[in-house]
């Protein structure tokens, strides 16, 4: 982390778990275990139907609500989709785009991820743009080339002012939901590489100001070491964000 230049963000990704009625008790437990002061922004990304309940319950403890996906279209005959306008209208502040599960199960490519990020930015929602390599790509030694391509493609057409609202989440696919965390050196190396890619496009100042998160089996035990890396500005947390005590411990670890 480098708080002098950028925000620390601890974001949970609940995926398709929990229900709206479980949010209030979750937040109460989170509150009981949360550090009194904290130096990070906290976000919980839920299924779209649960966002209003998260906004309501999260207010008191300053936990923002985020979505997990958005349509690239503004409105129209796109059954089942949720637009950026609709997310903004209910008060959504953040939204994940390009999560590897969307890429894998819904065939989302980098151009679509870019269109979704731009749709969110137009409505004032901060996109949490996920990138990351597969195990095969890591073993083939092409991690940085692949991730650099994903970052460049996702940021295509996004200007420096809009970049300020963007958050990048480096999530090696082999570490998501597997219990296999990248070592802090591996995670730092790629996050530093991502910042270098952004520096090449936008220059030193904008690159210095972008928050880059690590995601992939981050938990209460390994968070402190990962968050101590200079280019890791927070975490995108799946499994551990469903456990209020563990999530609070990760928030506390970001206080270091
Ligand atoms: C995620 O879904 O973005 C994620 C990082 O999951 P987990 O923490 O469970 O690996």
Descriptive account of the structure:
- With 256 residues, the chain is α/β, with parallel strands linked by helices.
- Helix content is 41%, strand content 15%.
- The chain has a single domain, classed as Aldolase class I (TIM Barrel).
- The protein has helices spanning 23-33, 51-58, 84-89, 100-106, 110-122, 135-139, 143-154, 160-163, 184-202, 204-209, 223-227, 244-253; strands at 9-13, 41-45, 63-67, 94-97, 126-131, 167-170, 211-215, 234-237.
- An eight-stranded parallel β-barrel has the order 1-2-3-4-5-6-7-8, surrounded by five helices.
- α1 packs across α12 and α7 packs across α9 (184-202).
- The radius of gyration is 17 Å and the shape is globular.
- Bound molecules: phosphoenolpyruvate (PEP).
- Phosphoenolpyruvate (PEP) is lined by residues 13, 171, 176-177, 215-218, 236-240.
Major sheet characteristics: 8 strands, parallel, barrel
Shape: globular
What strand order characterises the main sheet? 1-2-3-4-5-6-7-8
Class from secondary-structure proportions: alpha/beta
The N- and C-terminal alpha carbons lie at a distance of 9 Å
Low-confidence stretches: none
What's the pLDDT, averaged over the residues?
Answer: 96
Assign the CATH class.
Answer: Alpha Beta
How much beta, percentage-wise? Answer: 5-15%
Radius of gyration: 17 Å
Count the helices. How many?
Answer: 12
Number of domains: 1
